[in-house]
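Prompt: I keep going back and forth on a fold encoding question. Comparing notes only helps if you start from a blank page. Show me how you would write down a chain together with its backbone fold. Please set it down just below, with no commentary around it:
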Amino acid sequence: MPSALTTASVLQCIHGGRLTVPAAGTSLTVDGQPVLVQSDLAAATIAGCANTNASAGQTPCLKVTSVIAGLSTDLSVRGQPVLLDTARGLTNATPPAPVMWQVASAGQTKLTAR
């Protein structure tokens, strides 16, 4: 089963930028780190994206625009599905082809879900 994501997890855009995802609540923790839920991604920021070739019309990934996979179907917090290590989605970068973010490391293996 996939591992649940926490604030200790590492999420990155496909260009190597790192997502910072603050957890809105701390009602469920793993190793003292709040578990991340879908709504936490609304406040996520991305730093260090290398998609910066302005002459090619590129703009860097700065925020998450959607989640397309990796939401738990059996574990939720405050009515929101928990994010799993299979999570991935889209960012606001250009060119307009889908620009993805994904999980590099769940950062924990104690809590799993479907």
Remarks:
- The chain has a mean pLDDT of 94.
